Amino acid sequence: MQHVRTSGPGEEVAALDLAGISHSYGPKRALHDVSFSIAPGTFTVLLGLNGAGKTTLFSLISHLYGTRRGSIRIFGHDVSRASGEALRRVGIVFQARTLDLDLSVHQNLSYHASLHGIGGHQARQRIAALLDIVNMQGRQHDKARSLSGGQMRRIEIARALLHRPSLLLLDEATVGLDIQSRAGILATIRKLVETEGIGVLWATHLIDEVEDGDHVVVLRQGDLVATGKVADVVGTSGASSIRDAFSRLNRIETSGIAEMSP
User: Lower CB count within 10 Å: N or C terminus of the chain?
Assistant: First the structure.
């Protein structure tokens, strides 16, 4: 993994640093003055209801949208001014399925590897290793359309890891999956943080995907309303749990939160 360090001895720059990010779609405000950072090798949950601004934020970080106000840095590299240097350190799994259904698993992954200049023997080695990591061994010749939703998501995660990024972004990666598939994918990503030192920004609206040791960033209708370790966010909001804190921060009934956690 490539980590960019500051000039200070032993100091490490943030895996992701956002400062004063605002974005609108015409008159509709999507994000307003959002600032936070995440450290390398940590699991951070971007938590918000649908419409909170999570996908817009991912689109800005990944440079699908230009940053109009504020700055985004990935391991010290500004996404607007040095997008190549910034984005080669990032792997992204978007909410929408993006595999070519008419290609095999191996063809999907090989094509992506070639886009990153990875070819031949090296690509085959990385693909084999990643299929093992995401528990999809022996499926390289299967057509993508034959896979279940959870299996497709695992292949998309493998694809995002092909170029060995130091930061992994996942936008609602478990939407539409059953409980077992959700748990398996979460366990895979958390293990990558532990064993590979990858920084992760995991966007979700599901409270039960948050663990006590996580960092959380809470968005409400485009505003940053809380950030920090789970215990800090719970304590600051005067809540008894992250579920209760999320309810208070979003000013909704706790019963509504329960309905969002299958």
Answer: C
